[in-house]
Amino acid sequence: MKKTLLILVYFISVSISNGQYSAFLADNSYKYVATPGFVNVTELNGAYGLVNHGEEGAPHEPGSVYSAYYYGVTNIFGYQIDRNFFGGVGVGYLHYEGGGLFPVYLEYKYNMYLRRFSPYFYADGGGMVHLSEFYDESKIFVNPGIGLSRTISPKLEVNLSVGYMIQARTTLSRVTFLNFKAGIILRKNGFRMFRSDKPEISNRYFYNTLH
Question: Beta strand pairing status for 118-129 and 139-153?
Answer without folding.
Answer: antiparallel
